[in-house]
Automatic annotation (TrEMBL):
Family, as annotated: Belongs to the peptidase M1 family.
Limits of the Aminopeptidase N-like N-terminal domain: 30-194
Protein name: Aminopeptidase N
One Gene Ontology molecular-function label: zinc ion binding
Gene Ontology BP terms: proteolysis
SUPFAM superfamilies: Leukotriene A4 hydrolase N-terminal domain, Metalloproteases ('zincins'), catalytic domain
Organism: Methylophaga thiooxydans
Taxonomic lineage from the root: Bacteria, Pseudomonadati, Pseudomonadota, Gammaproteobacteria, Thiotrichales
Domain Peptidase M1 alanyl aminopeptidase C-terminal: start-end pairs: 562-883
Reaction(s) this enzyme catalyzes, per UniProt: Release of an N-terminal amino acid, Xaa-|-Yaa- from a peptide, amide or arylamide. Xaa is preferably Ala, but may be most amino acids including Pro (slow action). When a terminal hydrophobic residue is followed by a prolyl residue, the two may be released as an intact Xaa-Pro dipeptide
Pfam families: DUF3458 (PF11940), DUF3458_C (PF17432), Peptidase_M1 (PF01433), Peptidase_M1_N (PF17900)
């Protein structure tokens, strides 16, 4: 009865082709009959013609569905009355208003892609963003169709005692045959990507929150019973987030209950489904014994991120997927401010920028470069990128910097008020900020439209007779695929001037009546080249520019190593202190790389050692910032600083520098380590976390010194540790040492923790990151270990992802073994889970930057993937873009 068209070659979707939906759904009544093998979905949709929409047939999306029956206003439709392809259902000649009943069957146990309804262990759960709902039932699966959902779930009572969906629970009951049912109603209209359903035998951990208007909200975290002791931190974080969003953005929660479910098999970190967030277990479960400080920190921020989406994403959603950054950029910016308010703001900023520079700048410089608001895609899953998220957050942050805090809040109030219940665009967001403050951000919007990382060049000149200081800023942005020329960006440039003693100088621009007091001021850069004249500057200053990383740009600002060393200890801006130190270290490391390439003797710079000593002994500095300042840039980041990365020389230079700093300052590292080794019970707070991070940095230098006694100290720390932060820090250092002690440490760690999936993933990741030469053989061995399953995305990321993304010296082995390994895994993964497969390909993003031999090997690797028949659209899009780009 159905006509199934053949699969077409992957189709490109264009922003320019956007049209409003032809039909809208006012109400969606869904009934799920859950069964182990087959689930039956009865969907009753109250639909009408969209008065603003085009004259077109009604098209419903649907994939991997068995259509059982279709009724229009109660009358069965015959096969001749509709058309079906592998991805759509088209119904012509519909009245203006009608009710459609669609019955489909799905097979969740066959679903390894983890989109739609699937099993994670014995839990049945959903993931619908971006286009998973079409794997549950036929529906206009696009974010601009918002509907009120009522969901009834029927299932065996013993097997699935807990049955959840979005909104508030309305009613429930029991049948005589051992099944039970529950009905959920979500009063807030939402797009289908925010739909969620969970069923399983779950433990619930409960708490409550009273909102600013005095409403009591039940908070529930559902987990596998064995994880019930791991929920406290997430619950605390949730309450912190709810309070912060009221205080900072005036946003109150809007349902009677807020639920989080932790599942083991999940493609992403977490998902903000209305009232029912579904989390990757690794992003929600924590105890001091099983999770590190970094885990605690990440969980706090992800719980907040998903919660914040309730307004920035759910109440106001995206018109189409090109607008993804509307919700993600803004929400990441919100979660970053939340984390900065609750912890060390300086460290938060450093971590955010570190991530942006190492991941997003590489994306911007590679074949997948795309604007924050892209104009085309083949597979939307490939656009959940660092550009959309992290650069998108920087773009919103710049708007805040340009208009000011109070003005930004006025703008977001107007945005939420004006667009509540709507699906809108990034232009609508910017318009609300403009309208609330009577500012013009039209040039600023280029940040949404133009891809690539702008480069700022700074030139300065001081006139000692006129007491004038001139700062000239020039900007340029390299070409990216599809965009050869770029218009100048509107850039907020935070600047401070320091005199020789490190004191801030007043800043008075030509034409201003009064000087600007305070350490930092924001210059608004809008032209390709622009000069700022500072007057009444009494002595020659050193300019500290791009303070707090006020814009996501690369800075060409020629400072000598001595000037960088000066800023490293004197800058008033914590971020720029750290950044000056990093630039100094990079300069030194790149000189060492050149010496290695020319077979010169390697010499340690005393300048850096002196500054490290000053930082380590500066009692006023936050230990968390000290730890960051003493951490050398990663090998990946160093590779990005070279025209042709030399992975082996980079590794050798970094090891040399670390060992020699360690030897020079051994006494001081030793003293600091001992001072920080106070035994007290673990607590997650900014001060204790700072102490542990500095202590572990000291330990890493002590071990790097090559003194065998320090290895014993490392083993002692592991033995005495009552928390995962100190235990894992020790294990990380041990895996780079060959010998029996390493094997024993790994074995006893596994024996102790093999029942705990989150800890076992750490054990896999630590081994995959080892710089020892036999790491690939070990990784292959671990793939056969009982601890590993290729169907579990967390396992894949921990082992394969870690090896390919964060172990450059082994992944880029000259014999091509790392690349061949990646190809094998991608081909297996693509059949199971295309999203995860496509993400693994990111390891080859910069392939054209490498030397001739490696380029050839990486090209062959990409070609061997491209040659495969039946590639998923996910992998196809990335492979063809990588191979096509110049
Ligand atoms: Zn998000």
């Amino acid at each position: 009865m159905d006509t199934s068209a053949t699969e077409q070659s992957p189709k490109v979707t264009l922003l320019a082709d956007y049209q409003q939906p032809a039909y809208l759904v006012d109400e969606a009544l869904l009934q799920f009959d859950l069964d182990s093998a087959k689930t039956r979905v009865v969907s009753t949709l109250t639909m009408r013609k969209n008065p603003q929409g085009p004259e077109a047939d009604c098209i419903l999306d649907g994939e991997a569905l068995t259509l059982v029956s279709l009724k229009l206003d109660g009358k069965k439709l015959e096969g001749s009355q509709f058309q079906r392809t592998t991805s759509q259902l088209l119904i012509p000649n519909l009245p203006d208003k009608f009710e459609l009943e669609i019955i489909t069957e799905i097979e969740p146990d066959q679903n390894t892609a983890l989109e739609g309804l699937y099993y994670s262990g014995s839990i049945l759960c959903t993931q619908c963003e971006a286009e998973g709902f079409r794997r549950i039932t036929y529906y206009p699966d696009r974010p601009d169709v918002m509907s009120v959902f009522t969901v009834t779930i029927v299932a065996d009572r013993e097997k699935w005692p807990v049955m959840l969906s979005n909104g508030n629970m309305e009613d429930q009951g029991v049948f005589d045959d051992g099944r039970h049912w529950v009905r959920w109603h979500d009063p807030h209209p939402k797009p289908s990507y925010l739909f969620a359903l969970v069923a399983g035998d779950l433990h619930v951990q409960q708490d409550s929150f009273t909102t600013q208007s005095g409403r009591e909200v039940a908070l529930r975290i559902y987990v596998d019973p064995e994880n019930k002791h791991k929920c406290d931190h997430a619950l605390t974080s949730l309450k912190q987030a709810m309070k912060w969003d009221e205080d900072t953005y005036g946003r109150e929660y809007d349902l009677d209950v807020f639920m989080i479910v932790a599942v083991n098999d999940f493609n992403m970190g977490a998902m903000e489904n209305k009232g029912l967030n579904i989390f990757n277990a690794a992003c929600v479960l924590a105890t001091p014994e099983t999770a590190t400080d970094d885990d605690f920190y990440t969980i706090q921020s992800i719980v907040a991120h998903e919660y914040f989406h309730n307004w920035s994403g759910n109440r106001v959603t995206c018109r189409d997927w090109f607008q993804l950054s509307l919700k993600e950029g803004f929400t990441v910016m919100r979660d970053q401010s939340f984390s900065a308010d609750l912890n060390s703001a300086a460290v938060q900023r450093i971590d955010d920028v570190n991530g942006l520079r190492s991941m997003q700048f590489a994306e911007d410089a590679g074949p997948m470069a795309h604007p924050v608001r892209p104009d085309s895609y083949i597979e939307i899953s490939n656009f959940y990128t660092v550009t959309i998220y992290e650069k998108g957050a920087e773009v919103v942050r710049m708007i805040n910097t340009l208009v000011g805090d109070e003005e930004f809040r006025k703008g977001t109030d107007l945005y939420f008020d004006r667009h509540d219940g709507q699906a809108v665009t990034t232009d609508d967001f910017v318009k609300a900020i403009e309208d609330a403050n009577a500012v013009d951000l039209s040039q600023f919007k280029r940040w949404y439209e133009q891809a690539g990382t702008p480069e700022l060049t700074i030139d300065t000149n001081y006139d000692p007779i006129e007491h004038r200081f001139t700062l000239t800023v020039s900007q340029a942005c390299p070409a990216t695929p599809g965009q050869t020329t770029k218009q100048p960006f509107h850039i907020p440039l935070a600047v401070g001037l320091l005199d020789k003693s490190g004191t801030s100088l007043d800043m008075q621009l030509e034409g201003e009546a009064e000087p600007h007091h305070g350490d930092t001021r924001i210059l608004s850069v809008t032209e390709a080249s622009q000069t700022f004249e500072f007057i009444n500057v009494s002595s020659e200053p050193l300019a500290s520019v791009l303070r707090g990383f006020s814009a996501p740009v690369k800075l060409n600002y020629d400072l000598s190593n001595h000037q960088l060393a000066f800023l490293m200890v004197n800058d008033k801006d914590s971020f720029n202190r750290w950044d000056a130190g990093q630039k100094l270290i990079i300069n030194i490391l790149l000189e060492l790389v050149a010496d290695i390439q020319q077979n010169n003797q390697l010499v340690l710079s005393s300048l850096l050692v002196n500054q490290f000593e000053r930082i380590l002994t500066d009692k006023k500095l936050d230990p968390a910032l000290v730890a960051k300042m003493l951490t050398l840039p990663t090998e990946n980041y160093l590779a990005a600083q070279m025209t042709t990365p030399d992975v082996d020389a980079i590794h050798q230079a970094r090891e040399f520098l670390k060992r020699n700093i360690a030897v020079s300052l051994k006494g001081l590292f030793n003293q600091t380590y001992e001072k920080l080794s106070i035994r007290k019970a673990y607590d997650f707070n900014a001060d204790d976390m700072a102490m542990r991070s500095l202590k572990n940095v000291c330990l890493s230098y002590l071990v790097a010194s090559g003194d065998p006694m320090q290895l014993q100290r490392c083993l002692r720390q592991m033995k005495q540790a009552d928390n995962m932060t100190e235990l894992l820090a020790g294990l990380r250092l041990m895996v780079d040492q060959s010998g029996l002690e390493r094997e024993n440490a790994l074995r006893s760690f596994y024996e102790q923790w093999k029942q705990d999936r989150q800890v076992v993933d750490k054990w896999l990741a630590v081994q995959a990151a080892s710089t020892l030469p036999d790491t690939l053989i070990r990784v292959k061995g671990l793939m056969k270990h009982e601890a590993f399953s290729i169907k579990n995305p967390n396992n894949v990321r921990a082992l394969i992802g870690m090896f390919c993304r964060n172990n450059p010296v082994n992944f880029h082995a000259k014999d091509g073994s790392g690349y061949r390994f990646l190809v094998e895994q991608i081909l297996v993964l693509d059949k199971l889970n295309p999203q995860v497969a496509a993400r693994m390909l990111g390891a080859l993003n910069s392939w054209r930057r490498y030397d001739e031999q490696r380029q050839q090997l990486m090209k062959q690797a990409l070609e061997s993937i491209a040659e495969q028949q039946d590639l998923s659209a996910d992998v196809y899009e990335i492979v063809t873009k990588y191979l096509a780009a110049e």
